[in-house]
Amino acid sequence: MNIYVSNLNFSTTSESLQELFTAYGEVESAKIITDRETGRSRGFGFVEMPNDAEGQKAIDELNNADYEGKTITVTIARPKTDRGSGGYNSRGGNGGYNGNRY
Could you tell me the pTM of the whole model? Predict the structure, then answer.
């Protein structure tokens, strides 16, 4: 089971996150997501637990729990979705030209 953990303290490490979930069963992996440019935590991460019952127990008991001074949110991770076209450089219809000459 892949578990999404958000609202983490920025000082939380992958190791401390794994330790938190180990109390509920076997943890395959725990990873804090970091900013590509700065390497700083983005405040969320993922935990993989091979036993679904243990994973669900961890979700039930840790969701809205206080951890390292923050109230964390723990849910089943949803698959990554395609954000589609029209990224931040997209100007839309007329390329920014408003038609006024004067």
Answer: 0.77
